[in-house]
Amino acid sequence: MNQMFLTAINTVKQSIDTNKDFLTNLDGAIGDADHGINMARGFEAVMGKLNAEPDIDLSAGLKKIGMALLSSVGGASGPLYGTAFMRAAIPAVGKTTVDAQLAAEMLLAATEGIKERGKAVRGEKTMIDALEPAYEAMAKGIQDGKSLLECLESACSAAKEGVEYTKTIIAKKGRASYLGERSIGHQDPGATSSLLILEALTDFCRKNG
Amino acid sequence: MVGIVVISHSAKVAEGVKAMADQMADKSVSIIACGGIENGELGTDPMKIMEALIRANSGDGVVVLVDLGSAVLSTYTALELLDKEERRLIKIADAPLIEGAICASVQASGGFSVNEVAAAAESARSMLKL
Predict the structure, then answer these.
(1) Has the ipTM of the complex gone over 0.85?
(2) Using the beta-carbon criterion (under 8 Å), do B47 and A38 form an inter-chain contact?
(3) pLDDT in tens, A152-191
(4) Is B11 on the interface with A (CB under 8 A)?
(5) Residues of B recognised as catalytic
(6) B35 Cβ under 8 Å from any chain A Cβ
(7) How many Cβ pairs closer than 8 A exist between chain A and B?
(8) Which of A3, A67, A155, A196 could be bridged to A138 by S-S, CB 3.0 to 4.6 A?
(9) What pTM was computed for the model?
(10) In sequence order, what are the beta bridge partners of B4?
(11) Alpha helices in chain A (DSSP H)
């Protein structure tokens, strides 16, 4: 994987590290209080794997990220984000640069992967509530002829609204579903980490053109 | 002989359930405890589960008992990592962990099929204690 991609993924890792306690506290309110810890451990493993193979290409790199998350995260977000990155690797086969079209295809593949793996749909207080609106905003951006950065920025705004929306609904999946109505008022940790990943990649794109 | 894999977020829970099931099972039944993640923390690891499934399968199949949440997701992921033939005779039992593991071990000791062992595990759902 070339330096550009390594740096992009490292931006994600740094954002997860910075927000580790925040994510864990969100999960403490409605879950098992480990989301930040799990995600930080996952991206630590990811960087270890990627740094060991700096020449890996985009698609193989994404697959490697997925495998590293699978075996290191420990919670449900391991299989979910693991599947997401492994699915995102499929449209990236043979590609060396990411344009808006490819970014949207990868985001769609990742979102569909999470939906399948978690058997979740929108409105259940999960990552999907951030990711699906993000994809739709990105697809609309492409239709309107926007640049990759503009598309990513609209995706982030949509994901942010999605995270806000999770505060208003009852959790139907995972540990939080045991809380029923008591889960209302809390934002979903998974939707939040999805937003953080999108924001980190958008930041990277803003700084590196 | 059908094998059994006990999956828990906690290595201690998985080991404990295995010990209880071993007491009831014929020595020839392979019961594998698969709990926790690499560094000993709480969690489930699809890779580790995949290895346990392969190890437990003598060719007659495996019944999997799971605790909560990501144990199910991680097991589905592990199944996807196996090839079709390996996956064919592996069943996740929708059953309580301890009672299910014990019912499954007893049934497996009788040389029953993977579907029958899974059904025995699931029958534990309706077992009353009082």
Answers:
(1) no
(2) no
(3) 999 999 999 999 999 999 999 988 998 999 999 999 999 9
(4) no
(5) 9
(6) no
(7) 55
(8) A155
(9) 0.89
(10) B31, B63
(11) 3-18, 20-30, 35-52, 58-72, 77-88, 100-118, 128-143, 148-166, 189-208
Which residues, listed in sequence order, are joined to residue B64 by a DSSP beta bridge?
B5, B92
All structural domains of chain B, each given as residue ranges with its CATH number in brackets, are 3-126 (3.40.50.510)
**Residue of B41, B68, B77 with shortest CB distance to A74:** B41
Look up the domain containing A57 and give its range.
3-208
Q: Amino acid letter at A182?
A: R
Q: Which residue of B has its CA nearest to A173?
A: B69
Q: Which of A95, A124, A175 is nearest to B42 (CA)?
A: A175
Summarised one tens digit per residue, pLDDT across range B56-106 is 999 999 999 999 889 999 999 999 889 898 899 999 999 999 999 999 999
CATH number of the structural domain spanning residue A134: 1.25.40.340
Domain count, chain A: 1
CA distance A119 to chain B (A): 10
With CB atoms and an 8 Å threshold, state whether B77 touches A79: yes
Q: What is the DSSP letter of B130?
A: -
Nearest-Cα residue of chain A relative to residue B36: A74
